[in-house]
């Protein structure tokens, strides 16, 4: 399985980089994982709704430029379905079983994802109703993907 995580902005925090590297290394026995960063737009504090849409559209174009036509796209969005770890594992297993071996997870910038990105997504998932920094979501996502593979292989993992 080929998994691409397309994310807005550069990761700066060393502790997050180390965590992501650790889980990416663990995942290498199960899948090929690539993390693709696209540039974020500068977003001053007091943006109008129109300016917010414009920023999301610019970031969205960059995101969509990294999505392959045959990718199964899963957008991380607060309005998405909140699956359990087991349900995410089952979804990845079903995708692999039915020939969708190229999966792209998309993490938007601080303002979220554009409508065009959401329209391209095959589904949207949410990890919580709470808001997390998009950099932290990378770590949470790679950990959950790793957990999903462990669950699917019947291998032990912390609950």
From TrEMBL:
Key words of the record: Cytoplasm, Methyltransferase, rRNA processing, S-adenosyl-L-methionine, Transferase
Cytoplasm among keywords: yes
Record EC number: 2.1.1.177
Main location: cytoplasm
InterPro entries found in the cross-reference section: Alpha/beta_knot_MTases, RlmH-like, tRNA_m1G_MTases_N
Any one Pfam family match given in the protein's UniProt record, by short name: SPOUT_MTase
Cell location: Cytoplasm
Record bears the keyword Methyltransferase: yes
EC top class, as a word: transferase
Positions of S-adenosyl-L-methionine binding: 76, 108, 127-132
Catalytic activity: pseudouridine(1915) in 23S rRNA + S-adenosyl-L-methionine = N(3)-methylpseudouridine(1915) in 23S rRNA + S-adenosyl-L-homocysteine + H(+)
Highest taxon of source: Bacteria
Family: Belongs to the RNA methyltransferase RlmH family.
HAMAP family associated with the record: 23SrRNA_methyltr_H
Function: Specifically methylates the pseudouridine at position 1915 (m3Psi1915) in 23S rRNA.
Subunit record text: Homodimer.
Protein name as annotated: Ribosomal RNA large subunit methyltransferase H
Organism: Bacillus carboniphilus
Designated gene of the protein: rlmH
